[in-house]
């Protein structure tokens, strides 16, 4: 892949919410950090936060100030959940090695995890990150189909390896070879747009390059495209399959019960993908991710080349991931996400009645996009940046997404309570009131 | 990269030591494992081991049998080292999040780590795996040089992403585009071969394709090529630099004091690479890795595209990595590796006098290659496979490497004691005696 020479066209997904050297809020720690970390590192907020402790839906900074976390989906069952912490500590003291020795833990976890997936999906491959999972999944899809093209959405983010960077146009550097983009829904500018029609057009654009699709690689809640729960996905999938391709459901964002209505994002659309990739929330902070598929789908790749991942599915990571499933079940977090998410959306819908800058509220469970607009109806890009920084001043942490960075990404740890939802709505009410005044 | 259609030409690095379905030693656990893990998964040994506990240089199986570990370099400061375990448990209970908040731990660790590197190298980027580190390093080198070619050794292994799989010919599926291979030393067939001459020829082969080298990507102990401590590397590096390329020192194998004579493999050759990648031993089992370079080397890549790694340098991983440096220092493990490695080599040299099947003993510190030959002088491939399986029966765990799989890879956790070395030599003496009888 050659991305050189393509200047960054946007600063969307990674930079919209970033402190940059030269901005205010310099500190001795920031200065030290800039001197030793690579120039790609960014910090959130105009006044960066030094977070020193977390618990449940709360984070604390170095001065002891408490923040409500409405952003972090990695700590999905809550920051430092004692059951997960205990599992990590217990396993770290016993054994951490690789998967070329037999281990009951990884087998039992794979069985438990696969039981949560639709029937055809019967094998797991563990990696360290969602990036590694998607990098592998694309190769599996290409080997399985004998085709090369990959279809992603215009603001997709699927990871940081060379291969999947080229499938992450939200990074602002275009896409790699053999990749085409299709538009996400746009409730403001194109409320009747069909996603499936875009995918069919993408298949035609691939054909014009002499390519057929290996895969539609899709986060079915379209997180970086601005959170779009409604999608004519079944029709899009049918078009991809008719052209000989498969579906890779990137569940790094919607997976593990976050959307409330289903354990997995694809299940919200009654679609059974050939390949599923998992990541961020899987180990509540431990670096574990996975590719799940039918054995027959994995076979052509496995027959063609060896694959081994040293830290993938190491015992400590598996112990954490298993404990995450315990907590999800015991605390009923999927049903909780559905119930609290519904209440939160009702509160936000009420705010939309009184605040003209709220253009749209959408989502499912505890994954909500709140889109903002300027008074002239244009995307509320600057407004959204102000809102997240003012919310941060008020002790509420979130970020933005979408093509214009105009959509608040409300994506808290799943134990988010009704009181947390009310606090978020109150603070947002206050911030929008100040900004609209 | 299109590796499809190229049949596996070897089963070297991943398969030489692998149990395969259909072999004996079936068990209920193996059957369950085969039913849920992807078909790429392999198991070590003709009789796979179920390892349930580790401590120091010892592993224990499900029946309570103890094994001397002469293979695992991930648990570099010893399995379940209490100082590392305690650091993981303590930090997991406090906070695990990402690097877009300020954090004193990652800054202090980066400062401490960079102080162990030669002066020009002044920035760190943390990833989850050596694969991710090498994948990033190659892109950094290409952006910094404006050149595309990559030179690797004929049996190199640099990771499992799409990009670096194409730079890992030991996988047996050839190399990707813009990659050329150069031969490692061959003490048996070509004892006077110059590595630098091979690199110069590689630069010429790139030129014939219209390419100039971005990087020589090199594990300077040449682990998967069979462990070759002696190399005219400075001369090779001069040739790469004269052609406008840089050196990426892949320290996943030799780094963190293993070779005894230096903290880093490149330092054994008085070479200062532009880019250093770290992996396996860095966190003693926690998934942490890094790319280290001068800011000016990282800058062109960082200016061209955003890079963020969610789990890279997460607090628990940093806590483990910092504890690893504590242990390396407090226990003087580099000096220990040098001293015990010297004694072990002396013991193995003694064995070479009495066992005609030992062709060569070479290495540095606690990274030793013991090359075997058949009676007719041909590579001891089948012999090496027998040796590691018989050693396993005697409670000693190791594996093989090299183009012919004829070299025992002796690479224990660093606290390997003089008694451990004597036990290894004794068991090897016994196994070779049985096989030569």
UniProtKB/TrEMBL annotation, chains A, B:
SUPFAM superfamilies: PLP-dependent transferases
GO molecular function terms attached to this record: transaminase activity
A matching Pfam family: Aminotran_3
Coiled-coil segments on the chain, per record: none
Claim: Endoplasmic reticulum is one of the keywords in the record: no
CDD domains assigned: OAT_like
Stored Gene3D superfamilies: Aspartate Aminotransferase, domain 1 (3.90.1150.10), Type I PLP-dependent aspartate aminotransferase-like (Major domain) (3.40.640.10)
Keywords linked to the UniProt accession: Aminotransferase, Pyridoxal phosphate, Transferase
InterPro entries tied to this protein: Aminotrans_3 (IPR005814), PyrdxlP-dep_Trfase (IPR015424), PyrdxlP-dep_Trfase_major (IPR015421), PyrdxlP-dep_Trfase_small (IPR015422)
Superkingdom classification of source: Bacteria
Protein family: Belongs to the class-III pyridoxal-phosphate-dependent aminotransferase family.
Protein name as catalogued: Aspartate aminotransferase family protein
Lineage: Bacteria, Bacillati, Actinomycetota, Actinomycetes, Propionibacteriales
